Every structure is written in structure tokens, then in C-alpha cells.
Amino acid sequence: MLTIKRLGLTLAFLGILAGLSSLALAERRLADPAQEARAVALHKTLRCLVCQNQSIHDSNASLARDLRQIVRERIEAGDSDEQVIQYIVDRYGDWVLLDPPFKLKTLALWFGPLAVFLIGGIGMVIFLRNQGRRAASMKNAAPPLTEEERRQVQRIIEEGDGQ
Amino acid sequence: MSEGEGMAKAPVSTLRRVVLAAIPVLIFVVLAAFLLRGLDLNPKEIPSVMIDKPVPEFSLPPLPRRDDKGLSTADLKQGQVALVNVFASWCVACRAEHPILMDLKERGIVAIHGMDYKDKPEDGQRWLEDLGDPYDLVGNDLSGRVGIDWGVYGVPETFLVSGDGRILCKQIGPITPKILRNKILPAIEAAKAGRKVTC
User: CATH code for A2-101?
Assistant: First the structure.
């Protein structure tokens, strides 16, 4: 008797859980699979504003869900991919694009790393070249040993340095 | 001869050494300046593209027991500078911000309108009854679609709107006394005087 009651409770609990999870997942998908595929492809290029650095495709935030829905609606209304993206960018700016557009304002973003790499490379070349030149000039600068010094060296080699 | 040449070269190479030594220092100073600036920046704050643009076309229904007509685009083109505050009963930071709005209302400097964002109308109504109502007009945005048209991504957010319905300034996150003093009040003053608003 008790086990049956417990079983019933468990089932009821599981039912509630299932209901909750389906509620969380309730999202209208587009009937046309091609359109839905386009929508999902666009979702993956749009950045979520709440959990930043996730796409709206990956995010569970309610705003992300709304934006996914808006993308679907725009596609259903016959917008091109560019028009859909523009619709979102008009409201939230280039910031929402996971792939930042190439324009004057983003030049530093696109070329910054390359510039740093070049400056570093040029600096390294200059440094190494100077280093080589200095070594060469040191070699030339050292005067040859005098006869006295040569004898001293010879003595040290033969007898040790006196210890 | 060769010694003379060496002497003439010496000051040049000192200068060169000083310049070379200055390069890392310069790089450090530039980096430090950027990083210092970065300390004050909030990466969660996304620059709004709505600034200097007309408010979007919208019309929101009122809360159940408020006898006004809700909030719509036309209400923001009455020739009066206004704040539009996006709030919600589920928003904790809005609770922190609320006394400041009440205080601002009391001072009567500017019209304050409310957008009850993604909130059941009853909940929004109860919020205003419990905490006090700083708003002239309130519209309920249950679906959050109007919020999206405004570029809202988190509450609270506050927009400063000119008399002819242009968005002049946006505050993301709760208005603190400091933000009120340094950003909101000067912006309101500039807007009322018809000066350019920077914020």
C-alpha cells in the first residue's frame, strides 16, 4: 500500500518535472525545415546580450529566446539573411555580431594583432642585427697579444696559474 | 684621426641609447593608460545604437488599476524632456534604484515614465502600490518586444528622451546617487536648455 502511494508520488513528481522542462523548451520552430535551418544558422552568428560570448543559439536567457523567435518571424515574413541581421543590429548595434564587420571603426580590431606582430618582428630583426654587428666589432677591436702576454699565457698553460 | 672620429661618434650613440631605453618605457606608459581606463569600463555595458535616434514606434497598454492610457510614442513627443525607466517587479536592482526615482519625482525636475518590462500587469501594479509610484505614465510590455525595439537587454535601464521624441542618453543598470549627480542630472539640464547632451 505504502509503496504504491510512493510510486504514485514519484510519478507525479516526474510528471511535474517533464512539464517544467517542456515549458522551458517550448519554442516554436518554423514548419519549413529549410527556413528553420536558415534561422538556426543566423542564431549561431548572433551574440547573446545577457550571457555575453554565447550565441543566442546556445543561450538559455529569455532575451535570447525572444531574439531567436524574432529571427524566425523575420524569415517567415520573407526577409533575406542580411535584412534579418540588420533588424537586430538596428536595435543592439554591431556588438551583437559574433563576427565583427570590417569597417573603419574596427580597423584596430582586425589589424591590431598583425601590427603588434610586425612591430615585434622588426624590433627583433634590428636587435639581432645590432647584436651581430657588435660582436663583429668587438672581435676587430681586440688588439693582438703582445710578445710579453703571449709568453705569460704559454707559462700558465704549461705550469698552471701558480696554485 | 681615428680617435677623433670615435670621440665625435660618442654623443650620437648616447642619444641613441636614451631613445632605445625610452621605447619600453613608452610602451609601458601606453599599456598602463589603456589598462587604467579599462578599470573603469564595464564590459557588460553595451554601447547603445539608439542614441540620437527617434524613439521606436510603440504603444503599450496601462497597468490594470492605473487610470492612464499606457505609454506610446506620441506621449514622448509632447515637447517635454522625459526619462523613460525600464523596470520590472522581478528585478532586484530596480528595487535598489526605486528610492532615487521617488526622490527625483519629488523634486519635479523632469517627467518620468515607466516601462514595465516582461512583467505581469498585476505584478507591476502591486510593485507600484507597495513601493510607491514615481511615474507619470506607465506602459506594460508583457512580451518584451517593445523593450527589444528600444535595445533593452537588462533592467533597469533608463533613457533620456527629448521633447521631440529623440533618445538623448541611456543609463544601463540602476541609477545610483553618483550616477544621478554626474550623468543624469547634467544631461537633463542640458536637454532642457537645448544644449547638446553628452553622456
Answer: 1.10.8.640
